[in-house]
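Record type: monomer structure entry
Structure origin: computed from sequence
Chain ID: A
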Amino acid sequence: MWSDRDEICIYMLFEYVCGGELFSYLRNAGRFTTTTANFYSSEIVSAMEYLHARNKEGHLKITDFGFAKKLTDRTWTLCGTPEYLAPEIIQSKGHNKAVDWWALGRVGADDIKRHRWFKGIDWHDVVMRKLIPPIVPKIMYDGDSSNFDDYPESDWKSSRTLEGSELKLFEDF
């Protein structure tokens, strides 16, 4: 892997990845089976990076390390698969590692929208909020919390706390 730049262009040279792009497989399949979706979602979560290609054994391959950097707070780098970019990247508001979770959600959203349950849905109408919600909460005043269930404090106070290796999974959050 190699990258360089001049005043006009960025040049990136990567190892050849013969498996193709995951996005292309999803587009061609229409939708993944639950098993396939779970497999690739698990690999995405464990990698927490934008994914672009698969190797010849079918496992995800992380690429585009030419833009890689250690992130301490926020960055303004515009990079990633355009279909999966988080709004804060596109709007140049600065972003952190949370945009990787957005990308994972977009992969899942692309897949689930093709499920037979959603056949006939006009996704433009959904985005434009033209559909009538089946449940409209009754709001009496700003700050009304009557639509939320009450949860006793004992429920969360008695739950098990994470320890050791479990905590390490979340040390960068």
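Annotation 1: The chain has a mean pLDDT of 70.
Annotation 2: The first strand starts at residue 2 and ends at 5.
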